[in-house]
Amino acid sequence: MELLINLTINGLSTGMLIFLLASGLTLIFGLMHVLNFAHGGLFAWGAYAGVWFYSITSSFTVALIGAIIVGALLGFITERLIIRPVYGDVVPQILITLGFMLVISEMLKVVWGPNQIAATVPPALSGSWEIGDVLIIKYRLFIILMGFLVFGIFYYILKRTKIGLIVRAGVINNEMVQALGINIKRVFLLVFMTGAALAALGGALMAPYSGVIYAEMGMDFAILAFIVVVIGGMGSFPGSLFAAILVGLAGSYMAYYVPDLSLAVNMIIMVLVLIFRPQGLFAVKG
């Protein structure tokens, strides 16, 4: 039983990190119809920014806030300079965002050097609790709680506030939203910056979790994020959460019971979803 609990906690914590990256991506994909392959680079910048802020302040709270601010600023720059000129053109979107992904990854090496950087868990979150025969690592539980907290906040915003209503309407029909006199470009910019900030937050939380950060980490997690978007459904925030948890748990259990399938299981799940429900498990109509 203790093994199942530990595997579940590991899978949930990994899934929550993927969710923070994929949630912003699914909103951007669903509302703006933009294939942003540079999203993983924002995740990596959040990781580096979080480690840097923590190294100079020794405050994990400041590190997370600093990473969120850096992610939002990079999101602003990306939307204005990279994404806005290619709205509606899928092939240019893929090419320019892939190119920008390489650029910002190399910029990490310019700013912080080409070598891996160690990241430590804050003292308040280090260690574990032992409950019977079950060993619960504090930081992994913290990540799970953070993931559900972020989901709760943004789900409330999307369902109970005016800006959330505009975003949900924009996912379904952005031309109609524009016709009602709402500046849809400003909404796009806000959503893009929010998605970038969530990606950066995920990166800042990932750094102590993995113990090391490197410039190419963004691409590795971006692939998982796109898998989650496909499984959960384009534009669905709850779908991102469910799919991320599914991917995290599948990876955790497979890595222990069937190691040879641990890398392929996510692709298998995505293929099955594409075959039987190509719009995703929680696809938004429109």
Helix/strand layout:
Layout: H1 2-32, H2 39-57, H3 60-83, H4 90-112, E1 117-118, E2 128-131, E3 134-137, H5 138-160, H6 162-179, H7 184-210, E4 212-213, H8 217-232, H9 237-257, H10 265-276
Antiparallel strand pairs: 1-4, 2-3
Provide a compact summary of the structure.
The chain is mainly alpha-helical.
Labels describing this entry:
286 residues; ABC transporter involved in vitamin B12 uptake, BtuC; two-stranded antiparallel ribbon; 4 strands
What does this protein look like?
With 286 residues, the protein is mainly α. It has a single domain (2-276), classed as ABC transporter involved in vitamin B12 uptake, BtuC (Orthogonal Bundle). The chain contains ten helices and four strands, in the order H-H-H-H-E-E-E-H-H-H-E-H-H-H. It has helices at 2-32, 39-57, 60-83, 90-112, 138-160, 162-179, 184-210, 217-232, 237-257, 265-276, and strands at 117-118, 128-131, 134-137, 212-213. It has a two-stranded antiparallel ribbon. Strand 2 (128-131) and strand 3 (134-137) form a beta hairpin. It is globular, with a radius of gyration of 19 Å. The termini are far apart.
